[in-house]
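Writing this down once: the sequence line spells out the residues, with the fold written below as integer tokens. This is how one looks:
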Amino acid sequence: MRRGGPVAALLGRFQHPAQVITTGFAAAVLVGTVLLSSPLASASAEPTDWITALFTATSAVCVTGLVIVDTGGHRPAFGEAVIALLIQVGGLGIMTLATVFTLLISGRLGLRARLFAQAETKSLTAGDLRRIVRNVVLFRRSAPRWR
């Protein structure tokens, strides 16, 4: 019997941290595309074509800010919230959010998840990893403060 639950089982399928990061990025773009193409995300209550939704979701996750349609005129509050959430996901980083969710769900990180997160954050030790994730989530500076 495998221990660790569904998160450990999912992470066990990946052989390299780059696979986790790429899959997380693709999943964020896919979810964003589906949400942005729904009628709820359009002021005219008509579905947005999928290429426009895909471009907008990818741009939001990449934090570039490029859009095909005017966000203020074409998107109601739901669409704007989806875009803002995608920007947060892209800005915080896929692996940082995955680490936070893993910690919230299981209370601890397994070795494989810790190695993935260390590779993403480029931290040297587990203590560095915990400090970096905490600082990123709390929007603090991770550099030492000089007087």
Summary: The radius of gyration is 18 Å. The mean pLDDT is 76.
